[in-house]
Amino acid sequence: MNGDINYEYRTGIGTDIHRLVEGRPLKLGGVLVPFDKGLLAYSDGDVALHALIDAIIGAAGLGDIGMLFPNSDPQFKDIDSKELVLKVKDYIAGKNWEVVNADITITAEEPKLGPFKMQMKRCIASLLCIDFLNVNVKAKTNEGLGEIGTGLAISAIANVLLRRRLKRTL
Q1: What is the domain extent for residue 73?
Q2: How far apart are the first and last CA of the chain?
Q3: pTM of the predicted model, to two decimals?
Q4: Pair type for strands 37-39 and 97-107
Q5: Could you tell me where the beta strands, DSSP code E, fall in the chain?
Q6: Engineered SS bond to 12: which of 36, 41, 53, 55, CB 3.0-4.6 Å?
Q7: pLDDT in tens, 93-150
Q8: Is the CB of residue 2 less than 8 Å from the CB of residue 128?
Q9: What is the per-residue pLDDT for 166?
Q10: How many domains does the chain contain in total?
Q11: How far, in Å, CA of 55 to CA of 36, rounded?
């Protein structure tokens, strides 16, 4: 068809898990969540944003979070994961990719995350420059099973859809 714009679409999945420890703030989905423990990590440990980053990088076929932000590089020590999301958004934009939507599930026995899901959605949509309705954040428990269920860790899984403009046909 004349004048049509063709797009390529790809999906990506990312996961992350970190142990809960005392003495660190708990950041999830770019939001500070009041809790007596935080996630142990080289950066701020935001498993939701880390899973999102891995999903984005994976969908674009550009490796993984550890390749772009190695935990051996001092510039990433205790970095706010929101900064990493912005770097990844710019990186994929340079390859003509954009995020269409993101779906993230955070699994934690505690704290209860329901009151923070909308804040996380707003934060993630803002970081990715996409509509609020194109981001979904779910919170689950592990029903008392495993390290997550006993309150020792928090995990997240993210799924994204990317779109890249190919070329205009005449």
Answers
A1: 5-168
A2: 8
A3: 0.94
A4: unpaired
A5: 5-22, 26-28, 31-33, 37-39, 97-107, 135-140, 153-168
A6: 55
A7: 999 999 999 999 999 999 999 999 999 999 999 999 999 999 999 999 999 999 999 9
A8: no
A9: 82
A10: 1
A11: 29
